[in-house]
Amino acid sequence: MHQHTVLFVDDEINILKAIQRLLRHEDMNVLCASGGSEALALLEQDPAQVVVTDQRMPDMCGVDLLSAVRERWPDVVRIMLTGYTEMDIAVEAINRGEIYRLITKPWQDDELRATLHQAFDHHALKSEIRRLNQVSREQNFRLQDMNRNLEHKVRDRTRQLADKHRELRQAYVQTVGALAEAIDAKDAGTRGHSERVALFSSKLAREMDFTVEFIERVYIAGLLHDVGKIGIPDAVILKPAKLDPDEYEQIKRHPAIGAKILERVDFLKDIALCVRHHHEWFDGSSRGYPDRLAGNRIPLPSRLILVCDTIEAMTSDRPYRKGLPFERVFDELTKYSGSQFDPDCVTAMLRLLEREGPDFIRRDQTFDIYEFIES
Ligand SMILES: [Fe+2]
Ligand SMILES: [Fe+2]
To answer: Which residues are close to ligand 2, an ion, with C-beta < 5 A?
Structure first.
């Protein structure tokens, strides 16, 4: 049994015999049919790689047979073996892509053999191309699958990382918050001061359309702004009355002390600067401290914190005085806009207070910076 099979179709039995004789020693099976329908029936049982047919036959012409073959077995290589009288039909069939080659009768033996071998090669090549296409299609599917899996994995990992990151930030803010609470707890009169300044400042930062990173930084700076009070004697901090000038000088050291403490922590270095300057006056006058910076040279978070620090302090009860009513805040901010306060901060703060009313300074509000940032 040979690997290759060719089917010859001709209504002249002598032609078929001559062909069989010619190909007797070739490495191929030779099938014969005397008409179109017989050829199709044969192909049904015995697949051939090449079909060679005459054009003019009683039951079916060669072109029709080959187009039927093409439809049912598209890979079979189709050849026409015909006399000169049917040349134009055959040429047309070639042009329509129906057939692979045309051999004219009477044929040259060598040419016929060579053409058949080429036809088998052509068939093998086409099959190989098809097989490769199939393989590459399957690999594509597998790749797409892998890609989809990978995308899922990356999405999952990214989400896990974001969650972790958020957890870490929260732990960090909680730690800073605990520290702030410890400072405020030193003095029963200022309990919750730092946290409220932080809350007010983040709201002001958002009112001024700053980025979430900036709002977060302002919040942390707000929590830590008075951390330097740790270095001020209790007698001064806890004095239940107005301070004398010497005591006031001592109190004025808290921003610098605070900055010194925070400077030593890498990720709080920029916060340290905001803390150092949270009592500078916008006009650069000597009423501000410690460096008498003016205008834009004062870090922006410090300018926001100063406004909020003032609001918190004036509206809270102290052992020696009651907190001032909410309405007084408007007068105070307006009065010191441009001298103590950055006018832009004042404008935004007045807008915010106008909108929120006395609720803004309510003492029982809960606040989560990350909920706030994400809302
Ligand atoms: Fe302060
Ligand atoms: Fe303060």
So the answer is: 226, 309
